[in-house]
Amino acid sequence: MFFQFETDFVDSLRCIPMVVRYKLDTCGVKLKLSHWHQLSLDQRQYLTEASCETTAEVSQYGEKLQNWVTELTGQPASTLSVPALPEWLNADQIPVQILTELGNKLPSLASPSITLSQWQSLTPLQRFALIKLSRTGHENRNFLPAIKEFGLMPSQEKVTIS
To answer: CA–CA distance from 3 to each of 7, 50, 96, 98 (Å)?
Structure first.
């Protein structure tokens, strides 16, 4: 359920893990880290483990989370628009920002790339993680560890990732 690149914080759930961020984007809730910290460990664990795939589950997940945030803060969390086909569910197109970030992180390669078949072999959660980790303004220190963990490291590259 958690990625290896998240191991430094998943035991305590002090940060929002990718699996929860995926569910937040699926149900359209923008949860602040301050909200996350106010939730009990049991609530955080629920958000980590609860299914959020069917229309009913997505609705229930979002409602439960919004109720908790409202109870804690007096107002619901902000909402996000949910596209009909999120980038992470589109296995037919690799987002440009991922290829750009790969080029930025591996400048020693002439043309670092991920193939479409590699992209298609990833789970939606893995694709989501790469999209989030390659966003402009995001601290991208986990991008290369994710690339390596998902088996996408270009074979010519001999980088050490810690």
So the answer is: 7, 17, 23, 18
Q: Which two tokens stand for residue 37?
A: 């910290």
DSSP 8-state assignment for residue 88: G
**Token couple for 16:** 């929002």
Q: What is the pTM of this model?
A: 0.87
CB 86 within 8 A of CB 25: yes
Cβ neighbours, 10 Å, residue 129:
26
Q: Give the integer Cα–Cα distance in Å for 92 and 161.
A: 29
Phi then psi dihedrals of residue 151, to 5 deg: 75, 30
Identify any residues that bridge with 29 across adjacent strands, giving them in sequence order: 79
Burial category of 62 from C-beta neighbours within 10 Å (exposed 0-12, middle 13-18, buried 19 and up): buried
Task: List the structure tokens of 125.
Answer: 């959660």
pLDDT in tens, 37-96: 999 999 999 999 999 999 999 999 999 999 999 999 999 999 999 999 999 999 999 999
> Cβ distance 19 to 47 under 8 Å?
no
Q: How far apart are CA 100 and CA 121, in angstroms?
A: 20
Tokens 């997940």 belong to residue: 61
